[in-house]
Write a structure and sequence with these properties.
Elements: E1 9-10, H1 11-19, H2 28-35, H3 46-55, E2 59-62, E3 65-68, H4 70-78, H5 81-84, H6 86-100, H7 106-113
Antiparallel strand pairs: 1-3, 2-3
């Protein structure tokens, strides 16, 4: 399956996309659930996530735009589609937040990953 990248993002547009991740999810049930959340990352961490992806070589800056590198595409093609789905990332973030708030134990979180 060949992955076609979207039009290049600026850092601001990428942060906005991380906030509204539900737009990129096709599963209707998951899409509805994600519309009620804050997306991927938090206001305080989104820029850091992008910086980390840049420093690890998964993203590169070209002028004002940020683009996925060959390494990013290789990684996405190597993992199961469920793992590469942005909705899954958002669900993990929700579960980790529940763990942080004491609503779920780390063992419960890990058990859900092996289903």
């Amino acid at each position: 399956m060949k992955i076609v990248p979207p039009k290049p993002y600026t850092q601001g547009k990428l942060i906005k996309a991380m906030k509204s991740i539900a737009k990129f999810v096709t599963d209707p049930r998951l899409k509805k659930q994600l519309k009620e959340t804050l997306g991927i990352g938090t206001e305080a961490t989104r820029a850091g996530i992008i910086k980390s992806l840049l420093s690890h070589g998964y993203l590169e800056k070209k002028g004002k735009t940020i683009r996925a590198t060959h390494s990013a595409f290789t990684l996405i093609e190597a993992v199961p589609p469920e793992i590469a789905d942005p909705g899954m990332t958002a669900l993990w973030e929700q579960a980790l937040k529940s763990t942080e708030e004491g609503k779920m134990t780390i063992e419960q979180f890990l058990d859900r990953q092996s289903l």
